[in-house]
Amino acid sequence: MGLENKTILVAIICIFCFGYINGKIEFDDKRVKNLTPEELDVLEDAVQRQGKKFLSEFKGTVDCSLEDLSCTMCLGFSLAKKPHQICLIAGVLIEKLGAFITLTYDYEEIWNQEILFNAICGGLPKPLNNVSICLEAYYLSLLDLPEEATLCLRTELTLIFPLLSIDFNCVKYEKGKGLFFDWTRESESKALIDININGGDPIVSFNSPIPWELIEPILAAIQKERLRLQFELTQKIKEDLNKGSWWSAIISSIGAGATMGMGIR
Predict the structure, then answer these.
(1) Residue 248 CA to its chain's centroid (Å)
(2) Is residue 4 in some structural domain?
(3) pLDDT digits (tens, 9 = 90+) for 146-204
């Protein structure tokens, strides 16, 4: 194994917070505790498929409005077999000598604010609210306004480890020319899947696959958490029946059935 591959392996081990016990790699089960069933599905799919089929059906769109001095960039994709879309609207505020962004996930607004940051982070809407989403302005040049400005943005989704990075590249403004895209500058990312939106023709790259000895403990932890969720739902059904709450018991049993079905491919 070369030095570069060893470095990657060590980095992956650090990311997943593994420990060696009796010569065996152990995964801290607490890392998946309290994840929703949907999040467990996403994590399992990402780890099992090593990224190559975890995301699919990529479709990018870009559009600029000279009137509003804003550009809209969207990336559609299939995540764990379900369609999703992330859109970024970015523009310049000539009078304020600044810029603004609006980020949406499945048409639900995540952020809408003027640019006063290097990076901001939050969570996706439920049921994926444990998935962290960060927006980074990896290059920002506003000092030459109102003559010109450049805004380069990247977003990253993380669940235990970085799953997906989307590079929206840059929006540029030049007096007399207006607002336009610049695809010549790129961010540096090491997520499982890196996507460069590339003017609506996405470029997708997959980083080094995770060795099986690191995957097995994660999958075991996911199954353990599913069993815990199933047990809790079963106990709730029993409690509802004892209280005579038949309707609540029916709802809980539907949830239990969904939990028992998780992981079946």
Answers:
(1) 34
(2) no
(3) 899 899 999 999 988 888 999 999 999 999 888 898 988 888 877 888 999 988 889 98
pTM of the model: 0.67
Residue type at 211?
Answer: P
Q: What is the tally of helices (H) and strands (E) in the chain?
A: 4, 14
Assigned domain for 2 exists? no
60 and 44 share a domain?
no
CB atoms closer than 10 angstroms to residue 197:
24
Residues 227, 186 share a domain? no
146 and 130, same structural domain? yes
Check: CB of residue 109 under 8 Å from CB of residue 125.
no
User: What whole-number distance in Å separates Cα of residue 162 and Cα of residue 22?
Assistant: 29
Asked whether residue 219 falls in the same domain as residue 187, the answer is: no
Provide DSSP, 182-213.
E-S------SSEEEE-GGGS-EEEE-PPPPHH
Query: Which of the residue ranges 98-102, 212-216, 226-230 would you say has the lowest mean pLDDT?
Result: 212-216
Total domains in the fold of the chain: 2
Buried/exposed code over 20-44 (b: 16+ C-beta within 10 A; e: otherwise)? eeeeebebeeebbeebebbbbbbbb
**Are 75 and 154 found together in one domain?**
yes
Query: Domain containing 170: what range?
Result: 55-206
Reported as half-sphere exposure (CB side, CA atoms, 13 A), residue 183 has a value of 11
